[in-house]
């Protein structure tokens, strides 16, 4: 389901296209009217989403912490992502692109779920065994504000 901001952007895009067909050099007022109608639907959905969005609680009692996920191949950084799935997808795509034979590759991730800051390693299954690929994803804590007690 699209978010309110996605509906708003789509409404803007469709309104621009409607103007092109109705008043610009598109020369098709019927298409312009249809696009304008679709733009109105998206604008309405954006408005409803904005009016029904739940208020975020403001009950922080300690400094907020966020996490990013760093994808690497050996010592080569591939990217940093706000979610683990994107970092893993990047590693799997890169491993597939660098494989001698990329047909029927079966990937798995090895790591300790009780230690989430430890790296997870991408392995490929070959002949019933898991072979390491050198690709890792590591969760990195990012503080959203300075904590002077952390330096003590």
Task: Let me know the average pLDDT.
Answer: 82
Tell me, briefly, the overall form.
Answer: flat
Structural class: alpha+beta
Helix segment count?
3
Q: Report the major sheet.
A: 5 strands, antiparallel
Percentage of residues in strands: 25-35%
Low-confidence stretches: none
Order of helices and strands: HHEEHEEE
Cα separation of the termini:
46 Å
Global Rg: 24 Å
Bin the helical content: 25-40%
Spatial order of the strands forming the largest sheet: 2-1-5-4-3
Number of strands: 5
Short account of what is shown:
By secondary structure, the protein is α+β, with helices and mostly antiparallel strands. It has helices spanning 4-22, 29-52, 84-98, and strands spanning 65-73, 76-81, 107-110, 120-126, 129-143. β1 and β2 (76-81) form a beta hairpin.
Structural write-up:
The structure is a single chain. By secondary structure, the protein is an alpha+beta fold. Helix content is 38%, strand content 27%. It contains three helices and five strands; from the N terminus they run H-H-E-E-H-E-E-E. It has helices at residues 4-22, 29-52, 84-98, and strands at residues 65-73, 76-81, 107-110, 120-126, 129-143. The chain has a five-stranded antiparallel beta sheet with strand order 2-1-5-4-3, covered by helices on one side. Helix 1 runs antiparallel to helix 2 (29-52). The chain starts with a helix and ends in a 9-residue tail after the last strand. The mean pLDDT is 82.
